[in-house]
Write a structure and sequence with these properties.
The longest helix is centred in the first third of the chain and has 19 residues. The model has no long low-confidence stretch (mean pLDDT about 95). Strands 1, 2, 3, 4, 5, 6, 7, 8, 9 and 10 form a 10-stranded mixed sheet that branches. The chain has about 350 residues and is of the alpha/beta class. The protein has 10 helices and 10 strands.
Length: about 350
């Protein structure tokens, strides 16, 4: 007779969740065969409205940014300035503005969002002791520094819950400890989400970039890795000012990543699977540029799920008549930034 403590697969939580996934039919899945502009526009309006609803309400009014800048630090080929700016009545963001030497009015710009770790310092070349380093380090490979060295005005922002934007308990626990868990949980209790909070911060960062005299507001891109790639995807899906989005180590079917594997709570949006899969959010970015990169050995965003999500997204772009506006590169490595092919495509888009 079977042992009731060990023998039944009906005890398996993953098997149960995957069985539930097979029942899901997203109600606002993008139709890749749609050709009629009116039909496409109607879908985009409905989908964006639903996505905004799912990630939680955003402020109805934009508070004054009131940016405050630190003294510039001279670097090889660019200047770096710390800054803060208001995003909500009771909240400010922190970041660094990197301006290439000789930048003139009309320069394209990139908004960069880091993934989990120490925060924005990890992508602008600052080590865990607050000192400048002279070599690329960490899984994020200082990609904001790479952006400014490509000639882009670059704004790198600290996601809420990282670095300087943490709670006291996280600060007391070390540089790499985030406060995502309590803050994201609090957002859910308010009927909102951390993704919604971070997306609004990114939209306000775009406001700031667009106001800079060096920046061409019609040539602004976003780039992010891991959780920063997630913020980039949601922001680009909702804000047409993002002319091109680069998603590093983050684009995958929900099913094969955050639905089936252990992730930080800040990745989760209640009820999203009954409305969208990840590729449908890519459909909201079309016809603007979208580049996806992933490490072949990335266990957090598995290759099979990346390939499956990209195939659907590619079909959406083909259906919109812009197959050349989406691209993908897999590289040897794990959960890390590469950028080799991404920067080539970004140059064409900007």
């Amino acid at each position: 007779m079977p042992d009731p403590e060990t023998s039944t697969p009906r005890f398996d939580s993953l098997a149960y969740t995957l069985a539930r996934y097979r029942e899901v039919k997203p109600r606002l899945a993008c139709d890749p065969t749609a050709r009629d502009d009116a039909e496409i526009n109607a879908w985009m309006l409905m989908a964006r409205a639903k996505l905004r609803e799912l990630i939680g309400p955003m402020p109805e009014e934009r508070v004054d940014l009131n940016p405050a800048y630190g003294e510039p630090t001279r670097k090889d080929g660019y200047r770096r300035r710390a800054l803060s700016f208001a995003t909500r009545p009771d909240l400010s963001a922190f970041g660094y503005l990197l301006i290439p030497d000789g930048a003139k009015a009309g320069t394209p710009a990139v908004l960069c969002v880091p993934g989990h770790g120490r925060g924005v310092d990890e992508i602008v070349g600052i080590d865990d002791e607050g000192k400048d380093r002279d070599h690329i380090d960490g899984y994020q490979h200082d990609f904001a520094v790479q952006c400014v060295r490509q000639g882009y005005v670059t704004l790198a922002i600290e996601p809420l819950g990282f670095g300087r934007r943490r709670d006291p308990a996280a600060r007391a626990s070390g540089a790499g400890r985030t406060s995502c868990q309590p803050a994201a949980g609090a957002a859910l209790m308010l009927g909102e989400t951390m993704i919604g909070w971070r997306t609004w911060d990114a939209m306000r960062a775009l406001d700031l970039l667009a106001s800079r005299p060096e920046v061409d507001p019609k040539r602004m891109a976003m780039m992010g890795i891991s959780g920063g790639g997630t913020v980039t995807m949601y922001t680009a899906a909702l804000d047409d000012r993002v002319k091109a989005a680069v998603l590093s180590g983050s684009f995958c079917t929900f099913k094969d990543s955050i639905f089936s594997l252990s992730h930080c709570i800040d990745n989760y949006v209640p009820d999203i699977l009954t409305w969208f899969e990840a590729a449908d959010l890519a459909g909201l970015i079309a016809p603007r540029g979208l580049f996806v990169e992933n490490g072949k050995a990335d266990r957090i965003f598995p290759q099979g799920g990346v390939d499956a999500a990209f195939a659907v997204a590619k079909g959406i772009y083909q259906g919109r008549g812009v197959p050349d506006q989406i691209d993908h590169a897999s590289f040897d490595g794990g959960h890390q930034f590469d950028g080799t092919a991404a920067f080539r495509r970004l140059k064409g888009w900007l």
